[in-house]
Amino acid sequence: MELRVIDKTDEELRIEIGGEDHTFMNVLKGELLETESVTAATYDVNPEQSGGQTDPVLSIKTEAGVDPLDALGEAARGVQNTAENITSAYEAGIDA
């Protein structure tokens, strides 16, 4: 996964996330929207650019005084925790 910051201000971030598709982006966007300091989160994949599918661009807006990179880090940790919980539940189910 390659990340490229397109635009960043104190409360807004646009970042390209290379090599990902709707599956991951929907999970990340959902976690961002559950993050208390995030006021908006969306992503776009524009297939009309470059003649085909492009890497998704994630847009985040946070409350005043909250760095959107911090919010992204918090959401990424949330996705990781969810994945670990699913793995643990799966392994417990196999061992039962």
Protein traits:
alpha+beta; Gyrase A, domain 2; 4-stranded antiparallel sheet; 2 helices; 43% helix; globular
Summarize the model shown.
Its main location: cytoplasm. With 96 residues, the protein is α+β, with helices and mostly antiparallel strands.
Task: Describe what you observe in this structure.
Keywords: Cytoplasm, DNA-directed RNA polymerase, Nucleotidyltransferase, Transcription, Transferase. This is DNA-directed RNA polymerase subunit Rpo11. The chain has one domain: 2-Layer Sandwich (Gyrase A, domain 2). Helix content is 43%, strand content 28%. The chain is built from 2 helices and 4 strands. It has a 4-stranded antiparallel beta sheet with strand order 1-2-4-3. The chain is globular, with a radius of gyration of 15 Å.
Detail the topology: elements first, then pairings.
Blueprint: E1 2-8, E2 12-18, H1 22-34, E3 38-44, E4 57-62, H2 68-95
Antiparallel strand pairs: 1-2, 2-4, 3-4
Helix pairs in contact: 1-2
Pfam families: RNA_pol_L_2
EC number: 2.7.7.6
Function: DNA-dependent RNA polymerase (RNAP) catalyzes the transcription of DNA into RNA using the four ribonucleoside triphosphates as substrates.
